[in-house]
Amino acid sequence: MKTFPTSAVWCFGILFISASLITTGSSEVQVVGPADPVVALAGDDIILPCSLEPNVSAEDMAVEWTGLYLRTRNVHLYLDGRDSNEDQFPSYRGRTSMFHEELKNGNVSLKLTRVTLSDAGSYRCFIPTLTSQVKETTVQLFVGAVSQPVISIDGTKGWGVVLKCDSGGWFPEPGMEWLDSSGTILPADGPPEKHRDSEDLYALRQHVTVNKTDTNMFTCRVNQTEINHLKETEFHVPDDVFPKSHVGLIIGLSILLAVVVLAASAGVYKWRKYTEEQRERLEEQENECRKLLEEQDELLNLPGHLEVRRPSGSSASSNWMEDNDLYELNKNLTGQLGGLQGELNKVKMEKDGLQGELIELNEKLRKAEETIQSLSTSPGGQQETQTPSQKSERIEGMEMKSLPGPGRKSVPEMKPLLAAGPQNDDLDEMERGGRVTTDNNSML
């Protein structure tokens, strides 16, 4: 009975295992792509990932990259160990390549340079020579465009400065916002102005009015969330660009105006008080004048009641003494009447002086109240104040009450007497009374 050598058995076993591994490996190799889309900016160089799992060599395989548009475009073809791009779509010529040194590791990714907005879309990585069911994968390419915003000063508004931010060449449509130095979003003067250029790119413009701060630093930010890109520009506004603030001047003028009003009010109060005192003093003088006039009336009426009798018989001595007493009394009364006349003239002079001072005080009061009225006029209308002329008329129009008692004159009747002093008739009557008394004495 013949047996196989041990070395032969081992050789057959190794061959069987190798053949089994090759067959099993070929049936399980799959084409794998990225789970997320590839995002690129216009002008960038990007890689569309595609590989074999498990990692097996793709050097002897055919690899086809096509663009899935309305019509399939031939983007890149690797065949028979080399690039074969005779039927490549014109817009991709000179911009595609594969990593030949990575093919042995199963890396069949495609490199695309200088991408444009028209390159955006879906790309298929297909390996037809695989025996597995998963022979292809799809890669999504998203292309955007951005640009740096530009800030400029666009004038002033109120106490602030108007800033303008311009940014063009964006795709897809972005958003724009303003921030201060602390990162707080500022309220803009309106929504951004948007338009699209001939290349279908978006351009934005937005204004904001800013007030003076500690730093005067402001930022314009443009953000595109779909491609996860933002651009921002920081700008410093010089202090001398802001309009000059007159707040301090206004406050100072307000304080000065308040001080002037208070001082004028105090002055008017003092003038009124002084005027009232002068008026009371004038009334006291007028009362004194009335009293003097009453005393004058009593003195003028006294000589008329004296009876002149001639001496006769044995009573001549007593009559002479009585007439002598009457003569002395008449003399004393005449002296008192002269003193009263001097006092009356003095009171008249004081009255004239007080009336002059009162007229001057009324004029000053009128000017002061006009000043207060012009300063303290409310926005809703003029405050009701009594003019100095009205007050003067009120003072000048005051009537003194007549004193009770028989034979005393009323105020209207007393006024001419106050102004003119004792009447000539009264003085003549007093002089006649004095002469009569003197004659009687001489006769005695």
From TrEMBL:
Residues 272-302 form a coiled coil. The keyword 4Fe-4S does not apply. The chain crosses the membrane at residues 247-269. Pfam families: C2-set_3, V-set. Residues 370-444 are annotated as: Disordered. Residues 371-390 have a biased composition (Polar residues). Belongs to the SKINT family. This is Butyrophilin subfamily 1 member A1-like. It comes from Oncorhynchus kisutch.
